UniProtKB/TrEMBL annotation:
Keywords: Hydrolase, Magnesium, Metal-binding. This is Exodeoxyribonuclease III. The gene is xthA1. Its cofactor is Mg(2+); Mn(2+). It comes from the Bacteria. It comes from Flavobacterium limi. InterPro entries: AP_endonuc_1 (IPR004808), AP_endonuclease_F1_BS (IPR020847), AP_endonuclease_F1_CS (IPR020848), Endo/exonu/phosph_ase_sf (IPR036691), Endo/exonuclease/phosphatase (IPR005135), ExoIII-like (IPR037493). Residues 4-248 form the Endonuclease/exonuclease/phosphatase domain. NCBIfam families: exoDNase_III, xth. Belongs to the DNA repair enzymes AP/ExoA family. It holds the Pfam family Exo_endo_phos.
Length: 259
């Protein structure tokens, strides 16, 4: 089973890119972030014509997450990350697919830091940590997938010394990510490539893609039941070079299917 994550940076504006990649890569399950579309503007017909079922949590102009599945039923669990009933940002959706819990998330950026946006990010991280711990306790296959807006280590960022005070790399954020890992989750891409510089995002400015001045901020965290079935994974880096593409590239893993 091939599972992918892709921050599309506007699902309607990048629809041709998304459809081209889906046809080329043929993932079985896809988590999308930054739809930047209200609920009624999600391009469902185009997605269905490409062979995928979908559930999504849209929001006008900003945020938005979706889960796509090819020839598989999607049973929605929740589209609310517990812990703050006043949070209206569309950043979380959770579903059951073929006996596996898929969590698609888009963690807040948090800049400028310090400040209210950074506090919101840390609070969101704590809520995610609490939910992650609950899901682990169920002892079932779970994947936490998406744009975490954090570079876990210096290996995950081009010129780390320039990012020390950024909300994606501040000590508090890296510690929050490490705290979730310590519950028993496996960082799939780093496990597969323990010593390599692998990036999933390149800014539009200063020819970042051409210089490979990137960040690794899109992650797969696997519960123990999934980690033991991990086969391979990687980044479809070339998609970042397509015309009118997102500033992220699709990231994917392959796992043995659950019987």
């Amino acid at each position: 089973m091939k599972i992918a994550t892709y921050n599309v940076n506007g699902v309607n504006g990048r629809l041709n890119v998304l459809l081209q990649w889906l046809k080329e890569a043929e993932p079985d399950i896809v988590c999308l972030q930054e739809l930047k579309a209200p609920q009624d503007k999600f391009p469902l017909k185009a997605i269905q014509d490409a062979g995928y079922n979908a559930i999504w949590h849209g929001q006008k102009q900003w945020n938005g997450v979706a889960i796509l599945a090819r020839n598989l039923e999607i049973e929605e669990i929740t589209r609310v990350l517990p812990g703050n009933q006043d949070d209206v940002q569309s950043r979380y959706i959770e579903a059951l697919i073929n006996g596996v819990v898929i969590v698609c998330l888009y963690l807040p950026n948090g800049n400028p830091a310090p400040g209210p946006k950074f506090e919101y990010k840390l609070n969101w991280f704590q809520r995610l940590s609490d939910r992650a711990e609950t899901l682990l306790s169920l002892k079932i296959p779970v994947l936490l997938i998406g744009d975490f807006n954090v570079m876990p280590t210096e290996l995950d960022v081009y010129k780390p010394e320039k990012w020390v005070n950024d909300a994606l790399f501040r000590t508090e954020v890296r510690e929050a990510f490490a705290g979730i890992i310590s519950q028993g989750w496996t960082d799939a891409i780093r496990t597969l490539y323990p010593n390599e510089k692998i990036y999933t995002f390149w800014d539009y400015f200063r020819k970042a893609y051409e210089r490979n001045a990137g960040l690794r901020i899109d992650h797969f965290l696997l519960s123990p039941q999934v980690a033991k079935k991990l086969i391979s994974g990687g980044v479809d880096r070339h998609v970042r070079g397509w015309e009118k593409t997102s500033d992220h590239a699709p990231v994917w893993i392959e796992i043995n299917e659950f019987k």
